């Protein structure tokens, strides 16, 4: 099973940028969907972005489209979330998740579509 470790969360001013990383260990991201979700205090965990590791196609929530970019580095077995033009409403704990495509049980915008989760990294955007 793949193990996930997120990093890169920080406190940043509105309009700033951050890059989150999701590193895999135990096995490669090959044949996986990898997604980013976020959860603000008192709210549900929601979809941010996803990538098909093998093909490279991506998907974004409307709230982040044009500001966030998900990408992958095959050599480092890492998925990134580049976040630009950050807003206070982007403040949340960001989670990386992975699912072997052969074991998909739901779409990649759903938390039910992933069985492996990282520990989360805090992103705080100040106004």
Q: How does this model look, in words?
A:
The chain has strands spanning 3-7, 11-13, 18-25, 32-39, 46-52, 58-60, 68-73, 78-83, 92-100, 116-117, 121-126. It is 0% helix and 50% strand. The protein is mostly beta strands and 127 residues long. Strands 2, 4, 5, 6, 9, 10 and 11 form a 7-stranded mixed sheet that branches. A 4-stranded antiparallel sheet has the order 1-3-8-7, with no helix packed on it. The chain contains no helices and 11 strands.
Give a nutshell description of this structure.
By secondary structure, this protein is mostly beta strands. It has strands at residues 3-7, 11-13, 18-25, 32-39, 46-52, 58-60, 68-73, 78-83, 92-100, 116-117, 121-126.
């Amino acid at each position: 099973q793949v193990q996930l470790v997120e990093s890169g969360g920080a406190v940043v001013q509105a309009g700033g940028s951050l890059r989150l990383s999701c590193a895999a260990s135990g096995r490669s991201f090959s044949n996986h969907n990898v997604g980013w979700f976020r959860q603000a205090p008192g709210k549900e965990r929601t979809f941010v972005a996803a990538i098909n590791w093998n093909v490279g196609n991506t998907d974004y929530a409307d709230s982040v489209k044009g500001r966030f970019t998900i990408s992958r580095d095959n050599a480092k077995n890492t998925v990134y979330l580049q976040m630009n033009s950050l807003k206070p409403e982007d403040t949340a704990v960001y989670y990386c998740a992975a699912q072997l495509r052969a074991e998909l049980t739901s779409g990649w915008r759903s938390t039910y579509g992933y069985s492996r989760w990282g520990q989360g990294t805090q992103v705080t955007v100040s106004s």
